[in-house]
Amino acid sequence: MNKKFRTEKDSLGEFPVPQEAWYGVQTARAVENFPISGRGPDADFVIAHARIKRAAAAANQAAGWLKPDLAAAIIQAADAIIAGKHHEQFVVDRFQAGAGTSHNMNTNEVIANLANVALGGKKGEYRPVHPNDHVNMGQSTNDTIPTAIRLAALAKLPRLLAAVAAMAGEYAAIAAREVGTIKSGRTHLQDAVPTTIGREFAAYAWTLRRCADRIEAVRPLLCEIGLGGSAAGTGLNTAPGYAQRAAAELARLTGEPIRAASDPAAQMQSMHDVQQLANAVRALALELTRISNDMRLLASGPRTGFGEIELPAVQPGSSIMPGKVNPVMFEMLNQVCYQVLGQDAAIALMTQAGQLELNVMMPALGSALFDAMDWLTNATVAATQKNLKGLKINRERCRELAHTSVGLATLLNTSIGYAAATEIAQEAERSGRPVRDIVAEKGLLSAAEFDRLVAQAAIEGNIKKNP
Q1: Averaged pLDDT, 218-223
Q2: What residue stretches are annotated with the Fumarase C C-terminal domain (predicted)?
């Protein structure tokens, strides 16, 4: 079936636009210019940008710059996009002209066409609502795109924080159940002093919550927006009080304490707050990588590895080895974390790549941030639901390894000294015999007394010095 087109005109001349499209000529040109990734804009970003257009219309109407009927039509069109409608009309590739002019015009054209049809007009004629004169009134790509990036990041924050909180909660619950489960500690991947599953897993929960606190701490920075700076932060062609009115409207729409920046030019030049968020997300990814590696080590086996935990089986592990089950969810989480680190590196490079009054790398910068946040959210949720919930502790294996660990010799330091304890550790390693047996044989402690010493050290973290 042949696709039908209408002809629209811009400053470069005439250009065909798909007849059914709500977007217009500048968007159509961008689609032809940027067949790069095949990925359209992030959904939260589309909604954030529509909220900006809505807030601008309300602020311009309040200032008497925009007629009430035109403002109402723009607001109605923006509300439809905010509600999730017409998202298929946002078709410009994530890698596009610098600063995001193409996406800004995509939004302007879709809203203008929706508003005009609602007012009895036709697509592509832009009467009485014009994309630039009315939908973009008092705005510029320079201030709407960085504001939309910040608003989209704010929209993603609760989902990411909830995912981290859920994982931390699972680790804390396991820690509470296993507070008395003794196991061998390991440093340098070598036997160390005894500890407990409870202590080990509680530390994972504490670390994840600290990561979440750091991410949350960036929220106030993101709430300071440069909307109203218009071109180059000058405030050109904006109504008196526009920046404050638009910020107040966005605060109402988002539920966040949005406020106009004291220096709107700085919020166009600098992506410092976005970089701070990326840094915090990166820190979370690093910790999740480490914890995922621990889960895979602790679950290694079942016969030749640590085998201290058992992860729920979610799929067969091998196409050739029967019965094999792998820690696939934490393997997946590892892979996502590595990709997030790559996105953070890209964000850092693009943050410093701005020049003078504008950072033109914003489309790809925003995309990298959105991907990092979404991927980490989804991967954390999946790992928690599929592998962390249902995790079992192999208490017998923990006990076996704890009581055969050479590291138990450390418990003798306060009674016989480091040098003598070293000799016992070396004998245990050479002979393969448990430290407790050697200690009992030498008459230092009975096996039962040594077991009590192990429990005291592991659970209480304290050894009373023998008189």
Answers
A1: 98
A2: 408-454
